[in-house]
Amino acid sequence: GWTQCGGHGPMTSAYGLGSDNVLEFQVVTADGELKIANAVANPDLFWALRGGCGGTFGIVTQATVRAFPSPKFTVTKFALNASTPEQLIEPMAYLHAQMPDLSDKGVQGYYVAFPKQFIGTFHTHMKRGIIGEPVLDWWTGKYRARNAHVRRHGPGESAAKGSQSMGKQPGDGRLLSKENLQSPKFAAALKEAMPSAPGKMMRGAMVGGGEVMKRSPTETSVHPSWRKTYVSIWSDKDVNAFIDLSPGMGAYINEASYNATNWQETFWGSNYAKLSEVKAKVDPDMLFFVSPGINAEMMTVNEKGAVCRAASVNKNSKYPPPSDNANVSG
């Protein structure tokens, strides 16, 4: 899940994605053999496991990952409140436009937005004043009041608080670049993608940039657009407006709809073709099947609810094929 699909966290821009930091896998493949996969042994399998997602190429029994010293950083939490949903769009759009520059200065973080409230938790190696001044100066000049900084001692929190719905719910995600976030059309896209129903939210992860961008788009098998991404947004509503805003970008499969359109391009982009070749080589009989997943278009579910080979294969299927998992079918 986390490591094999990409993996982000509060220090991603400082150290890279989770998949960027795997040095070796031990994996049981469909032929029942335990294989070592690293840059020298089974390099294609190693590449595929770092972004092609779990449950696809084999059963990983062990992973060796790069370790880093425990960092010290500052945590800043703040909230924006508006009287109406429309009043929240302008300050949120402004904050998103600043995120690429803040990220380049070492800021990372997570946030949630409800129809009339934005709550963010951000981390940085740098001093509080350096990163916050542009946003706070704009905010002070634009609005009459804001919360004062509070120095907090003790352990911090890694993400903004927010309710978590259980079960099925509509929603989707999108990776966004600097060009997307600073587009004059961003505010309109944000308004369109923002849920309006009570209790629904939009979530964001400002975890790109930095080390994530320093890697080649083909070094691992995550969607190449990760190497241009500053923010991953996912909403309890469709994000078609963001999709239209960001041609060529993709979505993080762990934070997107299981029924995403153009799913191969959306989740893996130009890396899908090679992933398909590796999958066919290490698992020609499709023992490991997930949908959406690599070569999932070769499978279907019959009238008895069992997974079987599809009578015909549509390599460019718009939607992922059905699954026998009742939690994600439909």
TrEMBL record:
Residues 1-70 form the FAD-binding PCMH-type domain. It comes from the Eukaryota. The keyword Iron-sulfur does not apply. Signal peptide: none annotated. GO terms for molecular function: FAD binding; oxidoreductase activity. SUPFAM superfamilies: FAD-binding/transporter-associated domain-like. Keywords: FAD, Flavoprotein, Oxidoreductase. Residues 150-177 are annotated as: Disordered. The keyword Zinc does not apply. InterPro entries: BBE, FAD-bd_PCMH, FAD-bd_PCMH-like_sf, FAD-bd_PCMH_sub2, FAD-linked_Oxidoreductase. Its cofactor is FAD. Belongs to the oxygen-dependent FAD-linked oxidoreductase family. This is FAD-binding PCMH-type domain-containing protein. The lineage of its organism: Eukaryota, Fungi, Dikarya, Ascomycota, Pezizomycotina.
